[in-house]
Specification:
Elements lengths: L3 H6 L3 E5 L1 H4 L4 E6 L9 E3 L11 E3 L5 E2 L2 H15 L2
Antiparallel strand pairs: 1-2, 2-3, 3-4, 4-5
Amino acid sequence: MIKEKHLIGLGFIKNQVTAEQSGANAFYYYTFQPSEDSNLCLISQANDEVKEGWVISFFDEDLHVKDPDDLTQLIQVLKKIANE
């Protein structure tokens, strides 16, 4: 199960959305981009949608990561290839 501490430790950015911005309740979610120039983005669901751990998806894709070890390996590879 992916926990919030995993996301923070891997370098995910917390994105806050205020009640005014959402038109309802305030919430937050996490994103990760391997580099500033990358179009690739990993995104979590909103904190109010988390049931049994965070789920990370490729933005605009139907690919999901639910295992913290898989997520760690994925982030390590993305950081490596972004720095080559």
